[in-house]
From TrEMBL:
Stored InterPro entries: BchE-like, Cobalamin-bd, Cobalamin-bd_sf, Elp3/MiaA/NifB-like_rSAM, Methyltransferase_Class_B, rSAM, rSAM_horseshoe, rSAM_sf
Organism: marine sediment metagenome
Listed Pfam families: B12-binding (PF02310), Radical_SAM (PF04055)
CDD domains cross-referenced by the UniProt entry: radical_SAM_B12_BD
Coiled coil: none
Protein name: Uncharacterized protein
Length: 481
């Protein structure tokens, strides 16, 4: 039985030529986990990452026809649903016997609406896919009833059947390490549209889920507060395997990497003993950022730390249910610098429904006072399935039918206290000023002298094209808002 898995391109493609890449161009790790699990179960697997290959929808359709699979699975997010719909409808017309399966966040939160609106989609996999998808394929292959497969919704005789939820996988060590040879290694860690380094790059996770309840976070809604970890030996095994395969840079994409500080101490100490020629990147919560922890991470070659700060307003932080304070953020950054981190990224959200211009401007001023290297600023977006999105529905602020596929930027709602173009102009000005502050330039220069990693970032890109891109980025922050 042949299975093809598709990672569709976001409909509003982030175009590198327009200097609008802000994050890493990362492998589809969820699909790699699924593909490896299915491969180990005896299925013939192929994966296509549309955005990474810069494929048009017509190219994807040709690729699928060439593979001639029995089942095609699509990883569905709000950003990619439109392309997934177009591609899946086309291939279903080409082969009506083909089984079309949607999975990931949107298929978990809105399986029924997907099946109601897109009758060519046969099945939605809700929640984690490894076990569910495998059981589903077993039933399809034997032409058996799907009613006993937990975690799916499907079309049956013109009606939609929703089976009970599947329990979360408690022991993550039973899931095979992703086989990254299944897809070409064409990924590079990018910040501001520029490749951070020329090291062979990939992503991995040490845990799944998050126990916190930030109301804007799809992970919180997806994991329902369930946080599960891999054993230290299992994590280390994957790191060593990646090192043997020539990987030299790993981005941990856990939803909460530093949650349990004891396990991070243990992991970092074991990484140090391996003496690997690798660097690591991760995020961290500001309330899990002691100097001792961060110093231990730095000694284990963690080079970039991404910190969720969001706002300088305690009122706005409480609105998001972040459970942090601006003072915690200041201390976390101070501790990271004491620990020796030479590159810090802070993430911020502007445009909450009730957020004022003064609060937004104060956050921008706060950014300029923080000792960070790169501010990642987005407009607050209510994603389908999140508590923030559900609250807007319950208060009759948005029409669920209009936004269940896409979500909505709060700043575009009539109830918002700010206007997009006004605050964007202010963000643009502040973004530019941030990079030309004398203190910023001096500190950046001194840190570059001390840091081999920062030197790599610069010397790998001493060419007019990348320098021009960076200058344009400073003068025109990415239009991700």
């Amino acid at each position: 039985m042949k299975i093809s898995l598709i990672n569709p391109t976001p409909s509003k493609l982030i175009d590198e030529q327009k200097e609008t890449f802000l994050c890493a161009s990362s492998p589809p790790l969820g699909l790699l986990y699924l593909a490896t699990y299915l491969k180990n179960s005896g299925y013939k697997i192929s994966i296509l990452d549309q955005a990474a290959l810069n494929y048009k929808n017509s190219d994807v359709i040709k690729w699928i026809k060439k593979k001639d699979p029995d089942v095609v699975g699509f990883s569905i997010l709000c950003a990619s649903i439109e392309n997934a719909k177009l591609i899946s409808k086309s291939i279903k017309s080409w082969n009506p016997n083909l089984k079309i399966v949607f999975g990931n966040y949107l298929a978990t939160f809105y399986a029924k609406k997907i099946l109601e609106n897109y009758n060519w989609v046969d099945i939605c996999v809700r929640g984690e896919g490894e076990i569910t998808f495998t059981e589903l394929l077993e039933k399809i292959e034997l032409n058996k009833d799907l009613n006993e497969v937990d975690g799916i919704s499907f079309q049956l005789n013109g009606k939609i059947k929703e089976n009970k939820n599947r329990q979360f996988i408690k022991n993550l060590d039973i899931i095979p390490i992703p086989d990254r040879k299944i897809i070409p290694n064409i990924y590079k860690n990018r910040i501001g549209g520029i490749d951070v380094s020329k090291r062979k790059f990939t992503t991995m996770i040490s845990s799944r889920g998050c126990p916190f309840s930030c109301n804007f976070c799809a992970c919180t809604a997806f994991s329902q507060g369930n946080w599960r970890i891999r054993s230290i030996n299992n994590i280390l095994k994957e790191i060593c395997e990646l090192a043997d395969q020539g990987y030299r840079e790993i981005l941990f994409i856990d939803d909460n990497f530093t949650l349990n500080t004891k396990r991070i101490f243990e992991l970092c100490n074991k990484i140090k003993k391996e003496k690997l020629d690798m660097v690591f990147i991760c995020d961290g919560r500001v309330n899990n950022s002691s100097v001792n922890l961060l110093r231990t991470m730095k000694k284990a070659n963690f080079e970039i730390l991404m910190i969720g700060i969001e706002s300088s307003s305690q009122r706005i932080l409480d609105y998001y249910n972040k459970k942090i304070t601006p003072q915690m953020s200041k201390l976390a950054i101070k501790n990271a610098r004491k620990a020796g981190f030479n590159y810090l990224i802070g993430s911020f959200m502007i445009g909450g429904l009730d957020e004022t211009y003064n609060e937004a401007i104060n956050t921008l001023k706060f950014i300029s006072k923080l000792d960070i290297d790169f501010p990642y600023i987005i407009f607050t977006h209510a994603l389908p399935g999140t508590q923030l999105f559900n609250d807007l529905i319950q208060k009759n602020i948005i029409d669920e039918e209009k936004y269940w596929e896409s979500g909505v930027d709060l700043i575009d709602l009539p109830e918002a206290r700010m206007k997009r173009q006004v605050i964007f102009k202010i963000i643009k000005e502040q973004f530019h000023l941030n990079f030309f502050r004398p203190t910023y330039l001096i500190k950046a220069f001194l840190r570059t002298i001390k840091s081999r990693y920062r030197q790599e970032m610069i010397f790998n890109h001493l060419n007019f094209h990348d320098f021009d891109k960076f200058i344009k980025l400073i003068n025109n922050p990415p239009d991700l808002f």
